[in-house]
Lipid-A-disaccharide synthase
Amino acid sequence: MSGCIFLVAAESSGDALGADLARVLKERDPTLELAGVGGPLMAEEGVPTQADISGLAILGFIDGFLAFARVKRAVAATVAAILKAKPDIVVLIDSWGFTLRVAQGVRAADPSIKLVKYVGPQVWATRPGRAKTLAAAVDHLICIHDFEVPFYEPYGLDCTVCGHPALGRYKPGDGAALRARQGYKPNEKIILVLPGSRTAEIRRIGPALWAAAELLDRDRDVRIIVVAANSVRQQVLEQAPAAVRILDEREKEDAFAAATVALAASGTVTTEVALQGTPLVIGYKLGWITWALARAFLFKSKYATLMNVAADKEVAPEFIQTKCTPENIAAAAAPLLDDADAREDQVRAQDEALAKMGRGDRPASEFAADAVLKMMRG
């Protein structure tokens, strides 16, 4: 089977998903032609970007409004690249607002091109009306959770459930090796701070996480580390206290496994840390206008963290918006630092939630590749 598949990813998380999918597609059928718009990880898998999508990691209504002109240009460039490539299928990865506009542009210009959305909007948490909008724009959805499917059934959109991508990417970290490399003793307590992968997240959430770590350090002899993505490394350097050890992304699994407790912004990284058997305390903040609109009209879920959603209870303490304070975060993290039994209890609860999310199943990229290739076969 030959043909052309075009992958579209607008930010780092989508780039990683696209790279995983590209690798599995080529394994399944080396004759496939792959093209796309994405980042460095997709390029490493032989899918160099056909359009400039830099600066599209946008969070919230206000940030989106301010970036509207840039997004509009990127959408036009991406649609033009797709039409030039004339693919059989376009896979639109994550990034709801951007990929929706690309889908609508392609559908208007060439309805013969099949459109697949890989990771849908969080209709279970905010704006369930997006299910109808997406069903009108694409031919198939590859979603993460079983509980998403009923939102799309009334609109006739076929869905494939792939499980959380972080579960399929899991590789065990070597915490002991990380401690040895950094000169830490086996019994030293380590606080891992993860302030986010987007500029806006780091700006809004980072100060509370760093201040909480410093509060915990005040009465204890702890080490504080952070894993910084290359795209935000300089911002993290500017924000982190002087004594913090800043580690490269390539060491992230080892760092996650080495930590005694992690203070993290809500996101995919919370699943990655939990997979390494480390307890988490989670914080999150949006811009105040975005939060006011979301709280009043949009946000429907009891929890922001997927583990908590899957468990339908707060297995990892989370502090959102006004509750995201250094004092609250430090108070929740203190027993996890001081009491081995408390750590074990939370890790056990996190493991149960991970099992409900599909831990132990095939990687998400394999389910996604199967769905895309099935569409290729008609």
